[in-house]
Specification:
- The complex is a heterodimer of chains A (111) and B (113).
- Chain A is an all-beta fold and 111 residues long.
- Chain A has no helices and eleven strands.
- Chain A is globular, with a radius of gyration of 13 Å.
- In chain B, a hairpin with a 2-residue loop joins β5 and β6.
- The radius of gyration of chain B is 13 Å and the shape is globular.
- Classes of the chains: A mainly beta (111), B mainly beta (113).
- At the A-B interface, β5, β9 and β10 of A face β4, β5 and β10 of B.
Chain lengths: 111, 113
C-alpha cells in the first residue's frame, strides 16, 4: 500500500497569520496530487489538482506548490481567517483512478 | 442541485447485525467509492465501482459488501464479519477521465455497540 504523509497533524494560528503545511508522497509513478478541504459537518471539497513538477496553483489566499522529483507538495494560506479552519487532505491517485489519502492537517484559526 | 447524498447521517446498530449505508448521486458519474475514516487516519478505500454491475475491493474490504445495480446508487453493507465497524463512512464519485477530482457525500457515522 502506498504511503502518503502530511505534517503537521494539527495547527493553531491566529487570524491574520500565514501558514503552510506539507504533503509527502511516493515520487515514482507520479500521476497527480489532489488537495481537498474538509470543513466540519460538510463534505470534503477539491481545492487543487496538480500534475506537473513545479506547478503552482492559487485560489484566493490559498496556494499550493508541487515537487514531483522529491515527492512533496506545500499548501500555503496567506492571512488566515476563521473560515479557513478545516482539515486539509492530500490524495495521491494510483493507476490514475484510485486514491491514497494522507491523514490530513487540521487547521484552527483563532479570531 | 447535483450532488451526492448519504443517509442516514447517524446510525446505531447492535453488534452482530448487518447494516446498509445508502449513497446516491445525480452527477451522472460512472465511478463511485466508499471510504472509511478513523481518528488520526486518512480515508481508506473499502470498495469502488467504475461502472454499473462491476465493483472491486479496496484496501480494507473484509467484512463489507456492495452492489452497483444502478449508475446512481452504490450502497454499502457492513456485515457482522467486520470486526471494528464503528467509524465514519464517506461515499464519493468522479467523472471518467482526468483530472479525476472526487465529489464527496456528507458521510454517515456508524456506531455499533
Amino acid at each position: 500500500i502506498l504511503n502518503v504523509e502530511q505534517s503537521p497533524q494539527s495547527l493553531h494560528v491566529q487570524e491574520g497569520d500565514s501558514t503552510n503545511f506539507t504533503c509527502s508522497f511516493p515520487s515514482s509513478n507520479f500521476y497527480a496530487l489532489h488537495w481537498y478541504r474538509w470543513e466540519t459537518a460538510k463534505s470534503p471539497e477539491a481545492l487543487f489538482v496538480m500534475t506537473l513538477n513545479g506547478d503552482e496553483k492559487k485560489k484566493g489566499r490559498i496556494s499550493a506548490t508541487l515537487n514531483t522529483k522529491e515527492g512533496y507538495s506545500y499548501l500555503y494560506i496567506k492571512g488566515s481567517q476563521p473560515e479557513d479552519s478545516a482539515t486539509y487532505l492530500c490524495a495521491f491517485p494510483y493507476y490514475g483512478q484510485n486514491f491514497v489519502f494522507g491523514p490530513g492537517t487540521r487547521l484552527s484559526v483563532l479570531p | 442541485d447535483g450532488g451526492i447524498t448519504q443517509s442516514p447521517k447517524y446510525l446505531f446498530r447492535k453488534e452482530g447485525q448487518n447494516v446498509t449505508l445508502s449513497c446516491e448521486q445525480n452527477l451522472n458519474h460512472d465511478a463511485m467509492y466508499w471510504y472509511r475514516q478513523d481518528p488520526g487516519q486518512g480515508l481508506r478505500l473499502i470498495y469502488y465501482s467504475q461502472i454499473v454491475n462491476d465493483f472491486q475491493k479496496g484496501d480494507i474490504a473484509e467484512g463489507y459488501s456492495v452492489s452497483r445495480e444502478k449508475k446512481e446508487s452504490f450502497p454499502l453493507t457492513v456485515t457482522s464479519a467486520q470486526k471494528n465497524p464503528t467509524a465514519f463512512y464517506l461515499c464519493a464519485s468522479r467523472e471518467q477521465g482526468a483530472p479525476y477530482e472526487q465529489y464527496f457525500g456528507p458521510g454517515t457515522r456508524l456506531t455499533v455497540t
